[in-house]
């Protein structure tokens, strides 16, 4: 048994552009899947038009609430299966997305894991930012509490200026505009903020500007998938 | 003018498996390139057999010694060109590789940058480690000085245990075995170390084991491209 870690598109209708051939080959070999959302996973595989009989595939849910036992039982039950695929909702399984549990258990059981190449908004944002890629950190969500969030932004802004490590973070899409306002208000006017919005989509953009320049023309990021970066 | 950030393979003879169609489309549209190494870039494009006349392409070197002026002059001289491609030696431009300078100057000049999907050994290592992808840091090289390196490893090991942020780092390939020995010696016996070696190559592997288990059977990593991760 081997585990394919299968990335999927991060923007609609981009499968044929962003997925490398190795993903299509892996999907054609795989019959059993651990997926964040069964409906989405079925649609993803179906839309690729690989001639796969979706009804013949076996799916088990692997989301943030999944317990170790579910994965362990799945591996045990299907131990004679050649390949198991792990698919999360968008991008790369295990990177700001569920999937790490399936990999962690596979590693403990000496099951070979094969990560496949695919889109990651974090990596694409970093590439497009122009910030240092020699040292960077993805820190997930900033604190929700206003005071804690302001302290965190001030600390990140100082750390970037001092150490130069690029800081990457995300927000719940309906709070993107509020986060950008906080960043503009708390960072020094000359600090560079990069927004990677809807990357790989035709409407997407990756733009780096000074906080004071974002203040002059704040884009509407409401409900759009965004990555935020501070760096130099 | 727009800037394509063009990833290239990280293992030999894998172009046809790991590169998504959008890279081939971009290369067919691009005539001017900023590249880490002209010979390698020519060979990369040539091997894709896209029918591109390599002799008709314009290349300028963009490596770690390149000054801002070189890039600025290149953009100015070729301002009427539709697309400029940035290609580094392996993987994604700007991520543990030169390229950020070209992007940073493009961002300053409001030139659109378009990061394309491709292989990153850092991201593939993270996916395959089973460690947290909710919070992770790439820190580049550890200190060369023995005492400083030991202190750094001890600090990383403690930080991972305490905060859970996955720590990712690299070493000059001929010192990989020495680094693994240091990790085994300095980390707690139960600490998890992941080695992602030659990922995307048929001989590659991504394995996570306790320090004490690596000690029992240390793989030969000499001169092989590796990513090291500490996490939980």
Automatic annotation (TrEMBL), chains A, B:
Keywords: Methyltransferase, Transferase. One of its GO terms (molecular function) is methyltransferase activity. InterPro entries: 4pyrrol_Methylase_sf (IPR035996), 4pyrrole_Mease_sub1 (IPR014777), 4pyrrole_Mease_sub2 (IPR014776), rRNA_ssu_MeTfrase_I (IPR008189). It comes from the Bacteria. Gene3D superfamilies: Cobalt-precorrin-4 Transmethylase, Domain 1, Methyltransferase, Cobalt-precorrin-4 Transmethylase, Domain 2. One of its GO terms (biological process) is methylation. This is SAM-dependent methyltransferase. It comes from Aquirufa antheringensis.
């Amino acid at each position: 048994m081997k585990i394919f870690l299968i990335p999927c598109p991060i923007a609609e209708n981009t499968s044929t552009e962003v997925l490398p051939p190795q993903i299509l080959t892996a999907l054609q070999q795989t019959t059993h899947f651990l997926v964040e959302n069964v409906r989405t996973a079925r649609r993803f595989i179906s839309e690729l038009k690989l001639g796969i009989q979706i009804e013949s595939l076996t799916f088990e849910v692997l989301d943030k609430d999944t317990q170790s036992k579910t994965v362990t039982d799945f591996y045990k039950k299907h131990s004679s299966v050649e390949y198991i695929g792990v698919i999360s909702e968008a991008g790369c399984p295990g990177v700001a997305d569920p999937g790490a549990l399936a990999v962690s258990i596979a590693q403990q059981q000496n099951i070979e894991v094969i990560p496949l190449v695919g889109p990651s908004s974090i990596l694409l944002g970093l590439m497009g930012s122009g910030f240092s890629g020699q040292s960077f950190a993805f820190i997930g969500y900033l604190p929700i509490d206003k005071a804690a969030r302001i302290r965190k932004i001030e600390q990140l802004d100082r750390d970037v200026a001092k150490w130069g490590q690029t800081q990457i973070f995300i927000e719940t899409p309906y709070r993107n505009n509020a986060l950008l306002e906080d960043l503009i208000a708390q960072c020094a006017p000359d600090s560079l903020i990069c927004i990677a919005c809807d990357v790989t989509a035709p409407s997407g953009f990756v733009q780096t500007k000074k906080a004071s320049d974002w203040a002059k023309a704040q884009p509407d990021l409401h409900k759009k998938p965004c990555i935020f970066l501070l760096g130099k």
